[in-house]
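Work Package 3 (structural annotation) set out to generate three-dimensional models for the target panel prioritized at the project kickoff. During this period the team completed the workflow that converts sequence records into discrete structure tokens, so that structures can be stored uniformly alongside our sequence database. As a representative example, we reproduce one entry of 206 residues exactly as it appears in the project archive.
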Amino acid sequence: MVELFARGGIILVIIVMLSVVAAAIIIERLLYFRKIRGDESQIINRLKQTLEKHHFDEALAICESNPSPVANLMRVGIEHRQYSSEVIKASISDAANMEIPRMERFLTSLGTIAHISPLLGLLGTVTGNIQAFGVLGEFGAAGDPAILARGISEALITTAAGIIVSIPAIIFYNYLVSKVNHSIIHLENRVSEMVLLLKGNGNNAV
């Protein structure tokens, strides 16, 4: 492993570091989406039971103790429960827009890693080839072609490493972006449901 890093140089070290960052982002985002999906049904059921009893303070406490996109939307809706359905819907929609940056957290960094990794690999290959041809130039025509072949093969290590990092990063980036889009649509669909839930408890519009 040490020999491999020595052959790949500083560019290979950077690519490996980026792969670690990308893996951390992927794992963190997957756990995040898994958590909010698992908590959502439980929170909604608890809130429905509480709101049916008109225990609004208890419902707010549930939302505050279980921070998640749907809980944050419900908290805003409960706080505006005395207003008209249009005002409640607008307030919840604004709150939903505030949740988007939280769901997109670190995705820009993951996309950047996915795109620059092969470029860094190519940079390492170019600089490695320059060094290899420089060595050949020192020996002239009598130089051993094996030296040039070995230099080129070592230079290609960074390109291979860059592609290896880039492919899974692109796959998970696209998957997570799709996950965010689906979550946004899901939250938008929840808005009308929440309005009906709140106005169905006999609250008078202002």
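The helical segments are 2-52, 56-65, 69-79, 85-103, 107-139, 145-199.
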